[in-house]
Amino acid sequence: MSKELIYSVIARMHVRLNKLIETNNFDLQSYSVQHYSRRLDRVLTFYNRKV
Fold it and tell me: Where along the chain do its domains lie?
């Protein structure tokens, strides 16, 4: 996976997470926010290993 693709995926995931947070009235403990946040954490961990 190229760095550009990883950057793109991370950026899109951040945007989606922000939208989820807004949709859930900024409740960071909601299931959907927590679930998606964990997915983003896994991608970031993968990226950190690759670099």
Answer: 3-50
For residue 46, CA distances in Å to 20, 24, 38 come to: 22, 27, 12
Please give the radius of gyration of the chain, using alpha carbons only, rounded to the nearest integer.
12
pTM to 2 decimals? 0.84
Q: Angle at Cα 23 formed by Cα 27 and Cα 4, nearest 5°? A: 100
Q: To the nearest 10°, the Cα dihedral for 25, 20, 28, 48?
A: -160
pLDDT in tens, 1-51: 688 888 899 999 999 999 999 999 999 999 999 999 999 999 999 888 866
